[in-house]
Design goal:
Layout: H1 6-40, H2 51-78, H3 81-87
Helix pairs in contact: 1-2
Length: about 90
């Protein structure tokens, strides 16, 4: 058998996509924290926010991206190429 297995294809696509998600999160995090602090300054009585919520959001974002990319990659990797060519 020549070529990558379905598992290798899923791992390659997942690694590439999740690295983009992490880069996006790292870029957006300081901006979001700054905007949140500016917004909270307008209130007379304010409560701080917990870092746990930010970490939970990051984990949920990564989990959702991994499940979505993994599922779509697995379907594409295990599909029969003849079916795609027949519809062309």
């Amino acid at each position: 058998m020549v070529g990558a297995t379905a598992r290798q294809i899923v791992m390659m696509l997942s690694r590439q996509y999740l690295s983009l998600v992490v880069i996006g999160f790292v870029v957006a995090l300081p901006l979001a924290l700054w905007m949140l602090n500016k917004w909270l300054e307008k209130f007379a009585y304010r409560d701080g926010f917990d870092v746990l919520f930010i970490v939970a959001g990051c984990v949920l974002l990564l989990l959702t991206a991994q499940v979505t990319v993994g599922y779509r990659s697995w379907r594409a990797a295990t599909a029969n190429p003849v079916d795609s060519l027949r519809n062309e």
